[in-house]
């Protein structure tokens, strides 16, 4: 039901007509077919749609760029986030959604967070190298 409200809010901005029953049937069918192949439950990508809408993306190219960014993050940056609690990561996302026009405040918070993460990582690497010598 929450996803239907999110879909209708975007449809209102774009002047689309959305039939709620068709959306719920589509979500149900996707989940049934996905369960046959052991997939995760499918929900609407509201946060990705919100970012695309607020930035002003008009084409599918934005999804390709986001997919490349996610792939890069998963391949190369996952070790940095391994020891970070999920609460911290989720709070970063929540702050990013609430910031709106306050990008400078968000950049300050993000730089403080990254400084804490990298200083811990460099500290552990330095101790490891020091112990090996």
Which band does the percent of strand residues land in? under 5%
Q: Percentage of helical residues?
A: over 70%
The rough form would be described as: globular
Note the run of SSEs as H and E: HHHHHH
Decide which structural class fits the backbone.
mainly alpha
Average residue pLDDT: 73
Radius of gyration: 20 Å
Unreliable residue runs: none
Describe the SSE topology.
Elements: H1 2-14, H2 20-36, H3 46-55, H4 61-81, H5 86-99, H6 103-132
Helix pairs in contact: 5-6
Describe this entry's structure for a reader:
The structure is a single chain. By secondary structure, the chain is mainly alpha-helical. It has a domain at 83-133. It is built from 6 helices and no strands. The chain starts with a helix and ends with a helix. The relative contact order is 0.06. Residues 8-98 form the SLC26A/SulP transporter domain. It is found in: Membrane. The chain crosses the membrane at residues 24-43, 55-74, 104-124. InterPro entries: SLC26A/SulP_dom, SLC26A/SulP_fam.
């Amino acid at each position: 039901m929450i996803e239907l409200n999110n879909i209708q809010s975007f449809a209102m901005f774009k002047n689309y007509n959305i039939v709620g029953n068709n959306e719920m049937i589509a979500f149900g069918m996707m989940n049934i077919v996905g369960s046959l192949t052991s997939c995760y439950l499918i929900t609407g990508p509201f946060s990705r749609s919100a970012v695309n809408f607020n930035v002003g993306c008009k084409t599918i190219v934005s999804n390709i760029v986001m997919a490349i960014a996610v792939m890069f993050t998963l391949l190369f940056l996952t070790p940095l986030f391994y020891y970070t609690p999920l609460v911290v990561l989720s709070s970063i996302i929540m702050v990013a959604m609430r910031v709106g026009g306050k990008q400078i405040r968000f950049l300050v918070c993000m730089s403080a967070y990254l400084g804490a993460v990298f200083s811990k990582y460099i500290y552990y690497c330095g101790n490891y190298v020091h112990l090996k010598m």
